[in-house]
Each structure stands twice: as C-alpha cells, then as structure tokens.
Fold this protein.
Amino acid sequence: MTSRAPGRPDRPAPARRRPRALTVAALLSVATVLVAAGWAGRHDRPAGDRTVGEVTRVGVLPGASIPEYLRAAAAELAALPSGGPPPGTYALVSFADYLAPDRLADVLAGAAVAEVVARAPLPGRQTEIVRLPAQRLPQDVVAGMAAVAGRKDREAADQRARAAAADDAELRRAYETGALVAAGEAAAYRSGCRCAYAAVVRAAPDALRALAARPGVRAVDPAPELRRLDRTVVTPPLPEQRDVARPPADAGPTPVVGETSEAARAATEPSPNVSRVGSAAAPSGVATSPDASGSGRTAGQK
C-alpha cells in the first residue's frame, strides 16, 4: 500500500513568521530522520525464515480417487528432468503392502531415506499413523517402533485407569476400547510388525524412477517443492485402499484418546478424519484402518 502525504488546506493559512531558531531546529530534525533512513536502507536486514507458517502436503486428497492419484504421481515422476538438484528430489514412496523393518533396505535401495510412515493395521480399528526418522535401515525403524511401543504401553495404562474411575458406562467402554487398541499397537510395534507402508526419500530423478519400478513399490510421488520435513504433512494411501480415500467405519466404541492419553511425540502424524472433525469424541493422533468393505480410506493432500 502506497502512503500519501497529507493534503494541503484549500486556503492558505495566514502568513506567520516563525522564529529562526525553531525553523533551523525543524530542518535539522528532518535531516536526521532522512540520514537514519538512508543508513538503514543500505544495510540488509535479516530476511528470516520464509518457510515459517507454510505447510507442504504430499499425498492423496480426502475423497479423491486412488487410481487417479497413482496415475498423477507416475506422470509427475516421468516429467522430472533427469538432472535435478544435487541433493536430489524428495518423494513420498507408497508400498503395495505393509512391510517389516528388515524389508525396507532392499525396497528403498538407491535412495536416501528421511523417514518411514507406519501404523499397526489392527482389523477394524483406527490406529495412529507414526512418522519414524530413519536414516539407517532397519536400525532406526526398529528403535522408533520400540519407542512407540513404550508410549502405547503408557497410553493403555492411562486408559485403563480412567476406565476404572469412570462413572458413566459409555465413557468407561470408550476408555476400555482405547486401552485395548493402545495395547494392541504396543504389542505390534514391540514385535517389529509389518507396519511400514510408506517412506519419504530423497534421490535423483532417475533413481526415483528406478525405485518406482521395483517390486513392492506402489507409487513414487515426487515433491520438488518440499524443503522442510517438519513443515510437511504426508498422507500416502494405505495398502488396503483401492478406490476412494475416505474415513473408515471404526468397529466398536470410539476410544477417547485425544484428551486422556500421553501426547504423541513429534515423530507422529495423525491423518485427518473428515467425518469427525470438531467432534468431542474424535480421537486425536488416530489415523485410518480398513472398514469391512476393504475400500479406500482417509488420506491427506498434496
């Protein structure tokens, strides 16, 4: 917005003689301001982090067609120029099935892995999506799963304690369900489960294209715009998703997790649950699982 100087009055004010000392003082004051402004203008100010407040979303939109997403990712990957930036291009790799940690190194060979996306696929239950930093495979994923298992143990104990103290029967059932789900997740992660279903990697475009052709890889979705993983939401399609990305029909009482359980660490990333946004009963930090039909579920945006 361009600022304008105040307009002059329509009629000139009666002429008055100002004391000379006052006029000189005013001129000196104006000169001082101009000099200061000119000095400041010649010195670069800290630019700051222009990425603060920006969120990059990589994945499939809620309600979007899974086949169309896969085709679009393949087309974007094919269009990447072969050169690319020296560090490579970030990409979201979706797997055709849930994988155990010891399978990841072979599937992702040739790419620098930044993190692995996982969830415990408990039948008919919503479970939390976790993002595990994973520069070394499979060691970092195994360690990350052990940490999640410990947190889930504490979450299950918290839910059981609240269930025992609840007077309302419906609330008590919700806490009990939450305890069962958390305990199931803990047991799965502690066993080194087949829970990984995607990864964020970085590689040259040709290496990404080679990765996309590897058995077990469902899609490689390049994200050349991605700069900061901590400002990125990744929402790959779940392996059981086939048609449309949508929230699942959760079997059983909704676990009351958001207001009762230990907060998930920064390594976790909940998927949006469109059908329950704004609901007090909606569990926080909980993501998707298949419904009885086996059709596509919730995913995020790119």
